[in-house]
Automatic annotation (TrEMBL):
SMART domains: HTH_ARAC. One of its GO terms (molecular function) is DNA-binding transcription factor activity. The lineage of its organism: Bacteria, Pseudomonadati, Pseudomonadota, Gammaproteobacteria, Oceanospirillales. Residues 233-330 form the HTH araC/xylS-type domain. The keyword Cell inner membrane does not apply. Pfam families: Arabinose_bd (PF12625), HTH_18 (PF12833). This is Transcriptional regulator. Signal peptide: none annotated. It comes from Litoribrevibacter albus. GO terms for cellular component: cytosol. Keywords: DNA-binding.
Length: 331
């Protein structure tokens, strides 16, 4: 059983939405207790860490409609390959089925299901939390993005029959009413987007079958890699979140990933790397970022989990071929 993770591209959306509200992205990550670099954002991030990032963004922005506003600000690159597959699907039904088939490429934190009943298409979103409970903002974002995607793909006039949200009605729900333009059920038993099933047969604007096939092959490959566990990404994600290097062992990481130490070692060998090498590579990358930010030497020792200042200086010599002071002057 693999750890539940989330695509770094989806994380970009959360951070960009906070940025749009005037909150620095690094401030969100710091409050969430996540040691992750913007340059390393393509890595998968543990689900609980993503929930912490959501919570930090919500608290810092003080926006009671943060999830909804994130959905309104949706950018296709947040979905990466799934966006290309969606855009080049022949019709809406095919696009939705693509989202269902490849949703794990975005996140393990929820599942989408499509049913049809009495002339209505019903998309149900079911959150799948790890240890930390989901915020209703995450649900609002998903349903808002789904509506945005359909409107963008076929017709700006697409109007749902009904939206069901499992949370209480917000004090100011005019924005919801204006965007969805349909009845909204609050405190519902499930999160659902309901619309006339005739929309399912609408042709996607500008769909290209050859591009669809090309991106489908890439998505299948990515999904297979994800299914194999991609041990390198999982270890980097784990160390990113913990921000620890001295006190975290290979055995502890193996336990967190629900595999044996021997299996972890074998998978690392298959990917031609080692636990020590990955830890050192991440530490170097973090060091470059912190030095560029102007962090003090004492802060670097703490952030990079060194026991002594002398160990930091030795590592800088090894990583950059120069002293810490010389590295600072280069940046």
């Amino acid at each position: 059983m693999f750890e539940q993770t989330v695509s770094g591209f989806w994380l970009k959306g959360i951070l960009a939405s906070a940025q749009a509200k005037g909150i620095d992205q690094q401030q969100v990550l710091t409050q969430a207790g996540v040691a992750i670099l913007p340059d390393a954002i393509n890595e998968r991030v543990p689900l609980d860490a993503t929930v912490n990032i959501w919570n930090a963004a919500i608290e810092l922005t003080q926006d009671p409609l943060f999830g909804f506003h994130m959905g309104r600000q949706f950018r296709p690159n947040w979905f990466h390959l799934i966006h290309h597959l969606w855009a080049n699907s022949p019709d809406v039904l095919s696009a939705i089925n693509i989202a269902l088939e490849y949703q794990a490429l975005i996140s393990d934190g929820g599942s989408l299901a499509l049913t049809q009943h009495d002339g209505q298409a019903i998309i149900t979103y079911q959150p799948r939390a790890a240890k930390l409970a989901f915020s209703y903002h995450q649900i609002d974002a998903v349903l808002t993005i789904l509506v945005s995607l359909v409107r963008w793909s076929i017709d700006d006039q697409f109007t749902p029959t009904k939206i069901s949200l499992p949370h209480a009605k917000p004090k100011n729900d005019q924005a919801f009413q204006a965007f969805f333009n349909c009845p909204i059920e609050y405190e519902a038993s499930a999160a659902q987007l309901i619309f006339d099933e005739r929309w399912l047969s609408h042709t996607m604007i500008g769909a290209d079958p050859s591009l669809f096939e090309m991106h489908k092959q890439l998505a299948d490959k990515k999904l297979a890699e994800l299914g194999r566990g991609n041990i390198r990404s999982q270890i980097i994600s784990k160390l990113n979140v913990l921000g620890q290097f001295q006190n975290i062992s290979k055995e502890e990481v193996a336990q967190d990933l629900n595999i044996s130490s021997r299996t972890l070692q074998r998978k690392l060998q298959q990917e031609d790397t080692s636990f020590t090498e990955l830890s050192d590579q991440l530490r170097k990358s973090l060091a470059e970022n912190y030095i560029a930010q102007g962090c003090s030497t004492s802060d670097l020792v703490s952030l990079l989990d060194f026991k002594e200042i002398s160990s930091l200086h030795k590592a800088c010599k090894r990583w950059f071929g120069c002293s810490l002071q010389e590295k600072r002057s280069q940046d």
